[in-house]
Amino acid sequence: MLRYAVLRILGAIPTMLLVIAIAFLMVHAAPGGPFDSERRLSPAIEANIEAAYHLDESLPRQFYRYLSGVVRGDFGPSFRYREFTVSELIADSIPVTMRIGFFAIVLALAGGVAVGLFAALRKNTILDRLLTGIAMVGISVPSFVIAPLLMLVFAVMLGWLPASFAGGDGARRFVLPVIALALPQLAYIARLTRASLIEVMSSDYVRAAKAQGLRTSSIIRYHVFKPAMLPLVSYLGPTFAAMLTGSVVVEQIFGIPGVGRFLVTAATNRDYTLVLGITIFYSAMIISLNLVVDLLYAFLDPRVRR
User: Fold this and answer.
1) Which of 98, 108, 210, 233 could form a disulfide with 185 if both were Cys (CB 3.0 to 4.6 A apart)?
2) Which residue(s) pair with 77 in the sheet?
């Protein structure tokens, strides 16, 4: 297990370096510049600004300087928020994003597994078809459509919850963003859990356990649940990635001061260092979470380690 973990970690390092290089080149290939504005600056002022931010150096030299800072955890200064560095902006906004993402993942996993288990135990019944149909609707409707609908129903029409993050206090302001972020993934997990459970429950050793007179609850707990969760564990990596990227839209709709909202405003303001820093930060989180999922999968299924 230790050797497998070391190999997976070593394999993640070149992936991260490739992501940094591609993001750096794409940002520098974008038209315009961070200091372009309607008011034209004099050539002397532009030269001084470029020298201050090392933009007058060659592209390989800029990449080496930036990569050296990233290794130390320094993403450089923000071009628009002059009094803050990119690392400080991410550190100030990431707790809100992580809190929403954590609760959304917990809701999606708990709800999806419960719905999938309920549907699998009632295979081909009316309830099974109804839940499967609802799950398909949840998969088809993206979060940027679900979020305004939730806001319209529960905030505007019913008045139960605040319509924006700043419009409430306490846990109430997290409810709508968490639900909007979790519903599409809950539907995916429900269908995946149902299909996996039905496949495992039709295996020979489960039929042998039933022939021995074991209760259905005991069979599911000791013989079905663990192998049925292996496909779900494999899907956790893309689920985490979808939660992180989906939070960009949800945070913008509900006015949440998280990393996703900073990414949108940074792209609009051409704050390239902030865009680059958030992109690398998101990529590092996704790679790390996929690494954890790989290790968990290897722990559940020893065949993976071989």
Assistant:
1) 108
2) 85
Helix, strand, or coil (residue 168): coil
Dihedral-angle region of residue 78 (phi above 0 means left; psi in -120 to 50 means alpha; beta otherwise): beta
DSSP letters spanning 71-89: HTT---B-SSSTTSBHHHH
| The pTM of the whole model exceeds 0.70 | yes
- CA dist 36 → 39, 40, 48, 63, 271 (Å): 8, 8, 14, 22, 11
Give me the residue label for tokens 């909202």. 261
**CB neighbourhood size of 138 (10 A):** 20
Instruction: Check if the beta carbon of residue 112 is closer than 8 Å to that of residue 187.
Output: yes
Q: What is the pLDDT along the chain (306 residues), one digit of tens a residue?
A: 667 667 777 777 888 888 888 888 887 776 665 655 545 655 665 566 556 566 666 778 878 887 887 888 778 777 777 778 888 888 888 888 888 888 888 888 888 888 888 888 888 888 888 888 888 888 788 777 888 888 888 888 888 888 777 766 777 888 888 888 888 888 888 888 888 888 887 777 777 777 777 777 777 777 777 777 777 877 777 777 767 766 778 888 888 888 877 777 777 777 788 888 888 888 888 888 777 777 776 666 666 556
**Residue 144: strand pairing partners:** none
d(CA 249, CA 151): 14
- How far is it, in rounded angstroms, from Cα 178 to Cα 164? 12
Contacts 24+ apart (CB under 8 A), 278-283: 278/86, 278/90, 279/19, 279/23, 280/19, 280/20, 280/23, 280/70, 280/75, 281/75, 281/90, 281/94, 282/244, 282/245, 283/16, 283/19, 283/20, 283/23
Domains and CATH numbers, the chain: 96-255 (1.10.3720.10)
Dist CA 227 CA 221 (whole Å): 11
DSSP at 221: I
Residue 208, CB-side half-sphere exposure with 13 Å CA sphere: 4
